[in-house]
From TrEMBL, chain A:
NCBIfam families for this protein: HEQRo_perm_3TM (TIGR01726)
UniProt-recorded name of the protein: ABC transporter permease
Keyword Transport among UniProt keywords: yes
InterPro entries recorded: AA_ABC_transptr_permease_3TM, ArtM/GltK/GlnP/TcyL/YhdX-like, MetI-like, MetI-like_sf
CDD domains: TM_PBP2
Chief site of localization: membrane
The keyword Zinc belongs to this UniProt entry's keyword annotation: no
Subcellular location: Cell membrane
Membrane disposition: Multi-pass membrane protein
Organism: Streptomyces canus
Record keywords, A-Z: Amino-acid transport, Cell membrane, Membrane, Transmembrane, Transmembrane helix, Transport
Automatic annotation (TrEMBL), chain B:
EC number: 7.4.2.1
Top enzyme category: translocase
Main subcellular location of this protein, as a coarse class: membrane
GO molecular function annotations of the record: ATP binding; ATP hydrolysis activity; ATPase-coupled polar amino acid-transporter activity
SUPFAM superfamilies per UniProt: P-loop containing nucleoside triphosphate hydrolases (SSF52540)
Keywords: Amino-acid transport, ATP-binding, Cell membrane, Membrane, Nucleotide-binding, Transport
UniProt keyword ATP-binding, yes or no: yes
Protein name: ABC-type polar-amino-acid transporter
CC per GO annotation: plasma membrane
Amino acid sequence: MTATDTQLQPRKKGLTRRQKRSLSRGVQYVVFVGVVIAFAVSADWGRLKNQFAQADIADQMFPDVITLALKNTVLYTLSGFVVGLVLGMVIALMRLSSVGPYRWFAGVYIEIFRGLPALLIFIFIGVAVPLAFPGTEIIGGTYGKVALALGLVAAAYMAETIRAGIQAVPKGQMEAARSLGFSPARAMVSIIIPQAFRIILPPLTNELVLLFKDSSLVLFLGVTLEERELSKYGRDLASTTANSTPILVAGLCYLLVTIPLGFVVRRMEAKAQEAVK
Amino acid sequence: MTVETSRPEIEVRGLHKSFGTNEVLKGIDLEIGQGEVVCVIGPSGSGKSTLLRCVNLLEEPTKGQVFVGGTELTDPDVDIDAVRRRIGMVFQQFNLFPHLTVTENLTLPQRRVLRRGKARAAEVAAENLERVGLAEKADAYPASLSGGQQQRVAIARSLSMGPEVMLFDEPTSALDPELVGDVLAVMRMLAREGMTMMVVTHEMTFAREVADRVVFMDDGMIVEDGTPAQVIGAPRHERTRHFLSRLLDPAMADVEEDGA
């Protein structure tokens, strides 16, 4: 009885649900804009500009910041990504293998390298490897060391991503391939992995962005002037000029790559969606 | 008739298959001669799809033997990939490769598995698309095709490998009713051309008109095996009669105890 009463008179007094919602939204906007303005007003822009946006210091950085620092950052990242991808693929396949020890090894690898800070891996590569194998040089000098350090870390994450991608391909695909006479390995390479990569393209690119930023850890390996990348280059210049403008410029250079990368991924996702759906 | 024709194209002997403790196939013996079309019917869970999947070893039999074209598939040392090239398989869910165009779906297996040249593979693909009436869809992606078209492409893909035997696992069960006809027409054409076919299906009209033999399975065993007129027209076993009456006139079925 009471239920029907309230149903008959749903808004006795006060605001309707819709009115409450728009009121709440209005309050949120006001608070948000207020906070932004408060920060903008209270910051000392003059000093910030002095410390971070000196045009003449920024001018000095070109073209080296692009031709040397950004180029090295990109090189370090790409070489680490390639090593990580190859190693990650091997570990993902080991993880999915029917051979017990392979699965076990892959599991341990992933747990260790996902659990350690990338910084420690860099120090390990820089210090422990030369100690353990005296007289041997990692191929490619600093580039090789960075590729190895970044690759070892990236492989652990990528292995899990690739495994998930492979498992997301419907079982019928493998059955169809095997029925046509594909061997398990050939079916994996020709049919399953191409589909898996479509699925994992976004997380894989995310990994690329993370590596791009982690490449700054190269400074723990000790680099020559020619081997400096964005962060090291920016920091060095910041200390010689006693001004932080180089840091800001270096930061903008990172965004110069990561933001377009995000665009590209969304385009690829949309295209892949079109082909599959 | 040559000597080979006397040997059955598909031969299943004493086949058992268990999933864990669940025995799905309880001793199947079946022979299918060259050029014969055999429809396997039966209620869901009767093991008919499992039987079909055992014939190309997508399921590993627990016990028993399977021969196709005289080669024992259950021999542990058999080159299973080589045997499977001779056995076409059509799935309920089509299983086309979604990242490849229709033509690539047909050419990639030929090139990778049969090591055919590019031109030859394309030629065979075009021929087979023509046969299933989908030549104009050569460059389309599977996702843009209807279920019936996808299934015909899947059949063409199998045919491109030049199989001696074709297995069909409920090829029309995932299709909208108005699309079933096109797929059945392709299968009828294959039957007429003399392809050896084993078809798990619920399409009684197809079984009656096209099959040389109909096998009725229930509870992991073959209950009845004979001509369509015999098995569908005048079933001897109560279970067959019961199944057919429910299938042909589902509106008239009574409520039954489960697991009876």
